[in-house]
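Researcher: Structure prediction, please.
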Amino acid sequence: MSRRARILLALFCLVAGAIVNIAVAWGCMIYRDAGRTESRHLDELAALEQWRNLMPDVPPQEPNGDIAEQFGCREVLLFNSKVAKNSTSFDLVEFATNISVGWPMLCMSMDFVRTKDSEYFRSAWLMPRDIAWLGLSRNEALPVRPALLQSVFNSVFYAAGIWLLIRSPFETRRRLRQWRGLCERCASPIGSSALCSECGHCLPSRTVRT
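Model: Predicted structure follows.
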């Protein structure tokens, strides 16, 4: 395989790895199971820090919340008061939700915010129509805010897997031909020459018979 072909293949694998990374992240979002989460309560300092990160323009009023985690997904749910979480008038509650998805690292996220005046998504793509075969309904949100380092790691991880899937059959065939004393390119028997007599391929010195 020539150097140019290797570079082109590497670029293809990186682009394909980035696409697979987005697809996996969105898959974790679509098929997350709310009933199989492991949740833990945030302490006051952690809840306050999370609230300031998600809602810098809304004054905190003793916020509290929980973190729920499952495979490929982490959800942070914050309420802007200690009594809001148990409020019977949920429509009047100020809260913010941050959802991060991806595997092997959480690489994409989005927010849903409800204040006294409005409710809205941040860094989310709303589905324009129903897609039944994917289980997506109209206006369902998918995260579009990437975490740079995590996205790069995941993309390289998937690119390496794609590279192995593409190259493994050819590398296996090449090794078998070397082991059987055949030309790597055309599978013709080789003699004492450094070049294949059939295709002119340069033979590695270790496979040349003497």
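Model: The chain has three helices and nine strands.
Researcher: Thanks, that helps.
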